[in-house]
Amino acid sequence: MNPPAKTGARARLETIVKAYDVRGIVGEALTAEVVEALGAAFVDEVGAAGDRVVVGHDMRDSSPGFAEAFARGAAARGADVVAIGLCSTDETYFASGSMHAPAAMFTASHNPAAYNGIKFSRAGAQGISLDTGLAAIRDRAAEFLDGGIPAVPEPGRITEADVLAEYAQHLRTLVDLGGIRPLKVVVDAGNGMGGLTVPAVLGEAAGLPALPLEIIPLYFELDGTFPNHEANPLDPANLVDLQRAVLEHGADLGLAFDGDADRCFVVDERGEAVEPSAVAAIVALREIARVRALGEAEPVVIHNLITSRFVPETIEAVGAVAVRTRVGHSLIKDRMNETHAVFGGEHSAHYYFRDFWGADNGMLAAMHLLAEFGSQDAPLSEMSARFTPYAMSGEINSTVADVPAAYTRIVEAFTGRVEFDELDGLTATGITAEDQPFWWFNVRPSNTEPLLRLNVEGEDLATMSAIRDEVLALIRA
């Protein structure tokens, strides 16, 4: 059967509907008209007519208008919209989980100010990807753009709710920070939604008791133009202000949140970045111990294939089960449910919790780190070093004119020297003798750009650097 012909609307939507979310430049393919059609299509796909749908948004200038347009489309197809207003992405997961309602969050996460987008959830904060409903939403929205949104006998209502206090209270029940030693913490919200959630969860803004934390705020003013730096802590350039502030204030550590505050990055008292894999290993041990105390014999912990080798080693060393997965939040949410995993960690600082409906929550990961760090006296640099025994390159992106050709060069150069697997892109694990240092690398072509993404790990810095440079030379030849 031939695929349906692409209308102008379908082609337009294909430019903004990505593998796990919607993302695009405001005023180009992403307009209020498109968003309204997506709202209507979302209700149809998740079967929400007659039920509630949660809609939240970040601080970008276009976000309130887009949230309103989406709510109109959703209500037109019969859903009762609960508009929760300004919030972090993980607040929408909380609302989706606690209300058992589908949700849409308007944010472009860490992208620059010109962008916006939508992160969707099924009821219970479950993910949606192209393979599990997002393609159907896209195609139905295209039909609505071409032919209009059909009226239903009973359109839904739009009401407003504020869930921030309930969200903060819920996180406080999951991690007890009341008994830790006093800590001085610099927090860089990057003018993103952390400026709203940090005072509520770690401070007293939501009416909760004070914690033994002195929070030094950096860029807490909500501003979708990002006047200080992009809210993308994965780029080292965006950590510079936080690192400087930690040193200036003599702080115990620093936390940096991305624009929608669902990811949290950490720097130690020396201003040096803590690897997300180290955070994943620390939180994994805490969650394994917690459920073991409740009688769970073999807890499962998920890690994607780009986290440090030390993450599965840590999980398995305490008798838990490590499950290796591809990269991607909707995929990992599905695997969390399938395996009943207690925790999941990604190299990109996304951390997933069974007790948070299997969804990711950077704030909750930060709280676990504060609890663990605050229960002992060593500096964070010392604690971090114990969980970072190997050398990692971080993700290195290369613009490549002919991605398949570069991919072929790598395969030819390393055949016979490595064991390959293709779980996600190409992972090559070095075939080494027992007395030789281990190494591995992963190369993943981007789904949307002419890029190859490289991650390398070695048992020591010299080994990692040599493999990194060899693979990069092949990629950029």
Automatic annotation (TrEMBL):
Residues 395-473 form the Alpha-D-phosphohexomutase C-terminal domain. Gene3D superfamilies: Alpha-D-Glucose-1,6-Bisphosphate, subunit A, domain 3, Alpha-D-phosphohexomutase, C-terminal domain. SUPFAM superfamilies: Phosphoglucomutase, C-terminal domain, Phosphoglucomutase, first 3 domains. GO terms for molecular function: intramolecular phosphotransferase activity; metal ion binding. It holds the Pfam family PGM_PMM_IV. One of its GO terms (biological process) is carbohydrate metabolic process. Its cofactor is Mg(2+). Residues 16-132, 166-271, 280-388 form the Alpha-D-phosphohexomutase alpha/beta/alpha domain. Keywords: Isomerase, Magnesium, Metal-binding, Phosphoprotein. The keyword Phosphoprotein applies. InterPro entries: A-D-PHexomutase_a/b/a-I, A-D-PHexomutase_a/b/a-I/II/III, A-D-PHexomutase_a/b/a-II, A-D-PHexomutase_a/b/a-III, A-D-PHexomutase_C, A-D-PHexomutase_C_sf, Alpha-D-phosphohexomutase_SF. Belongs to the phosphohexose mutase family. This is Phosphomannomutase/phosphoglucomutase.
